[in-house]
Amino acid sequence: MTAVSVTAPSNRRRVPATTVVLHTLLIVGGLAMVFPFIWMILTSLKTLPQLLAEPLSLLPDPLTGENYPEALSAMPFGRAYLNSVYIAGLIIAGTLVTASMAGYAFARIPFRGSKALFIGFLATQMIPKQVTLVPFYLLMSRLGWVDSHLALIVPAMLANPFAVFLMRQFVLSLPKELDEAATCDGAGPVRTFFAVVLPNLRPGLSALAIIVALDTWNNFLFPLVLLNSTELFTVPLLLAGFEGQHGGVNYGLVMAASAVSTVPVLILFVIAQKRILNSMATSGLGGR
Amino acid sequence: MTASTPAPTARPAAPRELRGEPTWRRRRRRWGLAFVGPQVLGMTIFVALPFAGSMVLAFADWNGLTELSWVGFDNFRDQLTSPKFGRSILNTLLIALITVPIGLGLAVTIAVALEKLKVRTLYLLLFFAPVVTSQVAVATIWQQLFRADGIVSGWIARVLPIDPPNWLGDPRLALIAVCIVTVWASLGLNVVIFLAGLQNVPPTVVEAARIDGAGPVALFWRIRLPLLSPIMFFSSVIAFISSLQTFDLVFILTDGGPQDATRTIVLHIYDVGFGRFQFGLASAASIILLGITLVITAAQFGVQKYFVHYEED
Predict the structure, then answer these.
(1) Residue B186 lies in a domain
(2) Locate the ABC transmembrane type-1 domain: which residues (chain A) (predicted)?
(3) Mean pLDDT across chain B, nearest whole number?
(4) Which domains does chain A show, CATH number per domain?
(5) What chain A residue is nearest to B279 in terms of C-alpha separation?
(6) Per-residue confidence at A10, pLDDT binned at 50, 70, 90?
(7) Has residue B15 been placed in a domain?
């Protein structure tokens, strides 16, 4: 497991001057990173005349909260959140099961063609998903899944080579004695997997859950192509539609909609930051 | 793998032994297949089949309704000579070539700086916030930030003796705007990955170098960077592949405009396939995207031995 330790006690000699310079630079950089979000919030609290004022001020005066109810009533954001949450939930649950089973088999159970299959899995990761976009859409329409959440959920659950690769890495990092002992005690592969391997995979599973959640939540192109009905839209899809309708003049309204779409996720991120950052580091290091 | 483990059952295994392998191991094999089954099935139906479909459709003329006709390499000829597609390829390569080096360079710098500090949680939060935000929201915010009558242009006009720049309306500036947003949105991910990599550098190595008289600059160039280089290589491959797939940002920010200045390959595929329902042409374009991706990735693997340092085991 890689871990980004949040505080690093280092036995280096402190040079206060460099520390001050570093902090100054990082504060400037950090402000540049967070400025668009701050601007979004401030702008969402402005009235229309303030948006058109010359010269523009950063701070809203007077503050108004009127953009929020208006944005929320213009489009069903609550419904979109519900959609996003349950789609992501199902995909995460399904992926954890299928990917950890496959990862365990690739790591521990020798079977005919296992190597070739695994190389095939790795190779498909090289294929940009968009290459399959048109035929995927045609396949979904053949199955009758266009404009249905099934088109987002089932394929995502059952076809995730990266998840399989990651889980295989995690299984390989477990001591071999663990499952061998279970096998010697007469447990079959199924019992070994569920009773012995799975409980020990918890860190890997939580990392994978986070990676899949972020991926699913922010997915845009495939839902855009596959969903037509507004009541089925996920949050990014609804925001894109909202932006298309209101992006011209009253952008205070658009910023209110953006805030509704981003702030809950950001709050969640701050709460679970340590776990999320560790998962991302793990995946970025290739699951090492 | 498990050659030395005795059969778990108490049955006398002698007669079975003559038939090659013990039953339990044969049974395990079957379980192996069953365990990978769901993913293999899913990959076959939802990835391999559509991929084969792309390969087939690329040689056909079809809009989903009329009779499908085979046209040989016409789709490829059409796309490769199409000014719109040529422009998309150029734009996409420009985005990749501009954002990947700048993004990785900044990320390494920030990661090294963070590694030297005790207090870093807040910085990580600030840098990573755009990563957890959907690209649609990111693009929506920046689209309004970049307004010609907006705050950024206003500030620039106040500082420099020029008219407020019309970022997204000016063909020369629009691609730069896309690159700025791309770097901003992906920076935090690489910072976190590189920071983790730097923390994996064994302190004994750093200590030894220090005893040998290495200063902070030499430590960075001779120790930290070489040890980080495999991770940087991995990240640069991923970053390149994903910037070749730029879609969400440009779809919202500019919809490929003005005058196709920010049209990317995937936006082109979407436009041809789902705007004009020319499935054959869209498939041909997507096969070309795959080709470009493979060539660039192969090139990266080709030059890595000159830049990437691997520890001998």
Answers:
(1) yes
(2) 81-272
(3) 87
(4) 18-64 (no CATH), 75-282 (1.10.3720.10)
(5) A134
(6) low
(7) no
Chain mean position to CA B261: 22
State which H helix or E strand residue A215 sits in: helix A202-217
**Total-model pTM:** 0.88
Distance from CA of B24 to the nearest CA of A (A): 9
Instruction: Name chain B contacts of A279, Cβ cutoff 8 Å.
Output: none
Look up the domain containing B249 and give its range. Answer: 76-305
Query: In this structure, is residue B226 part of a structural domain?
Result: yes
**Are the CB atoms for A128 and B290 separated by under 8 Å?**
yes
Does residue B56 share a domain with residue B178?
no
- Convert the pLDDT of each residue in A72-98 to its tens digit: 998 999 999 999 999 999 999 999 999
Q: Which of B28, B132, B232, B235 to mutate to test the interface with A (most CBs of A within 10 A)?
A: B132
Closest Cα in chain B, distance from residue A152 (Å): 11
The total domain count for chain B is: 2
Do B122 and B231 belong together in one domain? Answer: yes
Compute the CA torsion angle B113, B118, B119, B123 (nearest 10 deg). Answer: 20
Indicate left, alpha or beta for B72 from its phi (over 0: left) and psi (-120 to 50: alpha): left
Distance in Å, alpha carbon of B245 to nearest chain A alpha carbon: 7
B84/B36 same-domain check: no
For B142-186, the pLDDT digits (tens) are 998 998 888 888 888 888 878 888 889 899 899 999 999 999 999
B119 and B206 in a single domain? The answer is yes
Q: Tell me how many degrees the CA angle A133-A135-A137 measures, rounded to the nearest 5.
A: 65
Say whether A29 and B125 touch across the interface (CB within 8 A): no
Contact at CB, A7 and B234, closer than 8 angstroms = no
- In contact, B250 and B178? CB cutoff 8 Å: yes
Is there a single domain that holds both residue B61 and residue B206? no
Confidence band of B130 (pLDDT split at 50, 70, 90): very high
Q: Which amino acid is at B274?
A: F
Q: Do B283 and A134 touch (CB under 8 A)?
A: yes
B66 and B84 both lie in a single domain: no
The shortest C-alpha distance from A67 to chain B (Å) reads 15
Nearest to A243 among B28, B122, B252 (CB): B252
Encoded tokens for B139: 């693009």
Same domain, B63 and B103: no
- Mutation pick from A51, A91, A131, A162 vs chain B, by most beta carbons of B within 10 Å, is A131
- B263 and B177 in one domain? yes
* Domain CATH code at residue B129: 1.10.3720.10
SS (H, E, C) B227-242: HHHHHHHHHHHHHHHH
